[in-house]
Structures are given as C-alpha cells and as structure tokens.
Amino acid sequence: MNATLLLRITIAIILLTHSIFGMFNNGINDFGNLFLNQIGFAPYGVLLAWLIKLSHVVAAVLLLLNKYVKLAGFVTILVLIMGIILVHFQEGWFVVGGGRNGMEYNFLLIIVLVAIMYPNGFKKDKIQE
Description:
Elements: H1 5-24, H2 27-36, H3 45-65, H4 69-88, H5 104-117
C-alpha cells in the first residue's frame, strides 16, 4: 500500500464533497455572485467560482489515481491560500469553538497536501551509482 493512500483518499473525499454539493444547491453560483463579484471579481465571479470547484474535482480524481499529484497539490494549495486571504483570515484561526469560519481547516489541508506531494520530505533524490 502506498504511504499516502489514506491521506489521498481523505483529501479527495473532502474536495469532492466541498465541490459537488455546491454544484446542485446553487452554492457555487451564490459564492460567485454574492461574494466574489462583491469583492472585486465582477463580472467573472461565477466563472471563477466554477473553475475553483472544478479544480477541486479534478484534483480529487488525480489524487485517487495517484497521477500528477504535485500539480493537483499546487493548484489546490493556491486555491486554499487564496481562500485564507480572501475569506478566512479576517475571521481568525478557529473554524469553530474559539471563533467561526477561521483558517485552521485550510491550514491543515495545505499541510496534508504538502505531505502527500513530498512523502519523503524535501530532500533531493540521490542518484544511485
């Protein structure tokens, strides 16, 4: 079993559930219209919201297939960092408990993605002689 399999499955489930439900309950359109357009992304807020959620779906599939893991990770980390900057930072650290809608969850997802992308750390691969 690959050392990152459980983490990849877990992140894929999170990315899929965070994306797919919004596709069917108008959540993505609302995020685009009621948030992104309002903070300066108009008239592209809805398109941007859909691209973000579709990137999550693609990343989840790639993580499950264990293909292009670093690319999927980098794109998702970029989205998560932008989520921290635009949404969560102003709410503080805690998602619940000591606050609401904070950045701790995104931080955890970013660190797990880094662990998936670099399961052996950041050491350069040694050339075998």
